[in-house]
Structure formats: C-alpha cells, structure tokens
Design a protein that fits this description.
The protein is an alpha+beta fold. The strands form three sheets. Strands 1-2-3-4 form a four-stranded antiparallel β-sheet. A four-stranded antiparallel β-sheet has the order 5-6-9-10. 43% of the residues lie in helices and 16% in strands. The protein has a domain of 123 residues. A hairpin with a 2-residue loop joins strand 5 and strand 6. The protein starts with a helix and ends in a 24-residue tail after the last helix.
Length: 354
C-alpha cells in the first residue's frame, strides 16, 4: 500500500507494543521507520523497467527474511536505546510485527507481494483493497497523530491504538468477503450473457471497496464489468476488449514477455502501437489507462523483433470523466463508462440505460 499507510501501521503497532516503555512519540517514530523499511527495495538497481516492475516487493517483503532480520534489528535497538535494554523479547517481537504487517497488507493489493520468498517465488496478490484506501488509512493516521502529540503513555491511548488496529484488520478481512461475493455475482452475470470466462477476478475499485472492477478472461478477449454493492435491479454492462494473443505468439522465449505474463498471472493484453507491440497488465488501472504498459517488441513486416523494454505513459485524459462515473457507480447509479463506450456489449447508441 502507499507509504503513508505503511508508516502509520508501523507506528501504531510499535506504539501499542513499546509506547509504555519508550514513550508514545518515540515509539511511533521508531515504528513508522520500521514500517517503511521493506519498501527501500525501490533503491535497488534493476536491469530494465520490466525487472523493476515485477521484482519490486521481493525479498525485502518476505516473511522468512523478516523472521531472520527481526532479531538483528531488534538487538541493534536494544543495544543503542537505553530504555529498551530490559525488554529484548518485546523489542524483537515489535520489529517482527512492524515488518510482517507491512508485507501482509501489501499482499492484500492486486500488485502482490512475495511473502514466501525464496521457497515460493510467485507474489501473493489478493486484490481486495486498492493501493490507497482512506477507510483503512485514516483511523491509523488519527491514532498516530494522537500518539505523536503525547509525551506520556495513558490507558486511553492504548485503547485507541487497539481499537484502530482491530477496526482496520477487520476491514481487511471484510474486503476478502466482499471480493468473494462480487466474484460469485460476476460469474452469474457472465453465464447469463453466454460468456464462458476461463477466469474471473474481482479487484477493489479506486479508493474504496464499494465499487469493484471484475475481469472475465478468455483466450482472445477479456470482459470488464463494474459492480457496486449498492446496485439496483438494472442489468450490469459488460465491456468487451480484444487481447490480441497473435501479437505475442512469437514472444514466448522473450525474457520481458515471460516475466510480464508470469507476474500478471495471464491478465494482460497486447496492442500494436505503430510498429511496437505493447503489453499491459489488466489488473492495475481502468481500460485503457493501465498503470503498467511496456513496449517489448517491434513488428517489421512478417517478423517480430524483441526490443529493450520501454515503459509507456498511460495518461488518456479521462480522469475527470472517471471521477464522475466512479461517484455515480458508488451510489449504485447505472451509468456508462465513457472511456469504454465503444466496447460496450449489446448497446448500439449512447444512452443512459441500455
């Protein structure tokens, strides 16, 4: 998740564990730093942009690495901070919790996290929360600001921290339940429309867990539907897009394509832009504004030539439209997403309901 959330979560955990010993302010600052630590992998050098994309949240987010690192970092803290010298076990546990909670909430996003590296290489990406979710972040930020403003530990602050952590953990659990509900609903919608999707994946919409993007994946095309928990009885709209597997048919042995296919878990599409073949991860962003798009090959006549991966801009000028659309869908209003109008199944004209 975003850096503010990770800082706030680490600070809240640390303050609850060490606030009485170290003082709320110092404990919060220490926990915030520890909660940010795994994301320092952004400063690691990578060979190319695709590697930087697929290898982020790698070994620094592994629970096994955290188990090894916690006593090392904890012992350093015990030996350098006088107030912690008699609390070795508690300090080690606090460090472990700050590191592992960072990785676990990252795993709840669609980007994923390699929680079990090196024994299991694939990232765990649930996709039940967006990378920024105010309902998760704001309670943590609130109690951390409270802790930073206090010099002395109080039982009231302890209850506030515990309440915020219980609420946010419960919210994460609820998001998984909502995701399962939305996926089951989407499968029925696809079946009723005669669509035999190979896989169905529900992903939390921007900034909330009320509106969901659901991808129905087929070999040569994919379908987007956007479901709100407040939808009425009107039939949901299905937007169908080509995947163009023929464009990447000859790229099976190209390293960049192999990594993108693996990391996206098959949720990708290929496009021809000029002569360049562009691969987009369908899970992150709204069609056609995908966050991660890479030109990885060029088509020259009948020949496809691999090129050094080139990340491409995803700006399409639809942000204003999408904010209005998202607010309408949040309230369950049946409105068309203009950016995908041309892909709308079964709708021949631009009308409010079809």
């Amino acid at each position: 998740m975003d850096s503010l959330t990770q800082f706030a979560l680490g600070a809240a955990v640390s303050t609850l564990c060490l606030g009485k010993t170290l003082g709320p302010r110092k404990a919060a600052l220490l926990g915030g730093a520890l909660g940010t630590l795994p994301d320092l992998d952004v400063f690691l050098p990578f060979d190319n942009p695709v590697d930087a994309f697929v290898l982020h949240r790698g070994w620094t987010h592994s629970l096994f690495v955290h188990v090894v690192a916690a006593p090392v970092i904890g012992e350093l803290l015990v030996r350098t901070i006088k107030a912690l010298k008699e609390h070795r076990a508690l300090v080690w546990l606090t460090v472990l919790l700050c590191l592992t909670t960072h990785a676990m909430i990252d795993a709840m996003t669609v980007y994923g996290t390699r929680l079990f590296w090196p024994f299991f290489q694939d990232p765990v990406g649930v996709g039940s929360v967006f990378i920024i979710d105010p309902l998760y972040t704001l309670p943590l930020v609130g109690v951390v600001i409270w802790a930073l403003s206090r010099r002395h530990w109080t039982p009231v602050l302890a209850r506030g921290l515990a309440t915020a952590l219980v609420f946010t953990t419960g919210y994460m659990a609820l998001s998984v339940v909502l995701q399962a509900y939305v996926e089951s609903r989407a499968k029925v919608i696809f079946a009723d429309a005669g669509i035999e999707a190979d896989r169905v994946f529900a992903i939390a919409g921007p900034l909330n867990t009320v509106v969901w993007k659901v991808i129905g994946l087929e070999d040569d095309r994919y379908h987007n539907i956007y479901l709100s928990l407040f939808d009425g009885t009107s039939a949901p709209r299905i937007y169908t897009h080509p995947r163009h597997p023929e464009l990447v048919a000859e790229l099976g042995d190209v390293d960049a394509f192999q990594k993108l296919e693996w990391f996206s878990r098959g949720y990708y599409r290929a496009e021809l832009e000029g002569q360049r073949i562009v691969v987009s991860d369908l899970r992150m962003g709204l069609t056609p504004s995908y966050v991660f798009r890479f030109a990885i090959a060029e088509q020259r006549g009948d020949t496809v030539i691999a090129i050094p991966p080139d990340p491409l801009s995803n700006r399409t000028g639809t942000i204003g439209q999408d904010l209005d659309w998202l607010s309408d869908r949040f309230l369950g209003r049946a409105v068309i997403r203009e950016a995908e109008f041309d892909a709308l199944s079964g709708c021949g004209e631009r009308i409010a309901v079809c």
